[in-house]
């Protein structure tokens, strides 16, 4: 769904994690990151579409940690939504200034058939990619 160059760490396999400490003793595993584009994405499987900017404390700290360690300019939570597409700024971090965001991928609530569901989810994926692409404008082509 995203650019092939995005790294998708495998927590269970312990591959492609990022080191928390300089001695590399401990690793954490964001869901997706791209070092050159300076972006990190963390998938959440919970309802966040009705909270304008709010995310819980643990998710916020996790996102800040990923952004800091990767020196990302953009860091975002990605989550499923039912009723609307979410593309909201959470805020800009003090310090080096990474922009934190919330992006949703809308999930069809009803479909007439499996083919209809696939068609609708593909349409929603394109919207999601366009929204992320707006934030990466000038860095790459997300199409």
Distance from first to last alpha carbon: 10 Å
The major sheet is characterized as:
5 strands, mixed
- Secondary structure class reads alpha/beta
Approximate helicity band: 25-40%
Tally of strands: 7
Shape summary? globular
The ordered H/E elements are EEEEHEEEH
Please state the average pLDDT score: 85
> How do the strands of the widest beta sheet line up side by side?
3-4-5-7-6
Q: Enumerate the spans where pLDDT stays under 50 for 5 or more consecutive residues.
A: none
Number of helices: 2
What portion of residues belong to β-strands? 15-25%
* CA-atom Rg in angstroms: 16 Å
Can you walk me through this structure?
The termini are close together. The relative contact order is 0.15. The strands form two sheets. This protein has a five-stranded mixed β-sheet. The longest helix has 22 residues, at 114-135. A hairpin with a 7-residue loop joins strand 1 and strand 2 (27-28). It is 25% helix and 24% strand. The radius of gyration is 16 Å and the shape is globular. The mean pLDDT is 85. It is α/β, with parallel strands linked by helices and 143 residues long.
Give short descriptive properties of this protein:
143 residues; alpha/beta; 5-stranded mixed β-sheet; two-stranded antiparallel sheet; 2 helices; globular
């Amino acid at each position: 769904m995203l650019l092939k160059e995005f790294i998708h760490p495998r927590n269970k396999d312990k591959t492609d994690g990022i080191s928390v400490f300089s001695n590399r003793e401990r690793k954490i595993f964001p869901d997706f990151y791209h070092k050159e584009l300076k972006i990190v994405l963390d998938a959440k499987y919970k309802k966040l579409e009705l909270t304008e900017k709010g995310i819980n404390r643990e998710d916020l700290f996790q996102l800040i940690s990923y952004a800091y360690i990767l020196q990302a300019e953009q860091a975002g939570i990605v989550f499923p939504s039912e009723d609307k597409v979410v593309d909201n700024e959470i805020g800009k971090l003090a310090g080096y200034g990474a922009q934190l965001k919330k992006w949703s991928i809308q999930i069809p609530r009803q479909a007439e058939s499996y083919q209809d569901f696939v068609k609708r989810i593909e349409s929603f994926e394109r919207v999601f990619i366009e929204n992320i692409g707006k934030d990466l404008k000038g860095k790459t082509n997300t199409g």
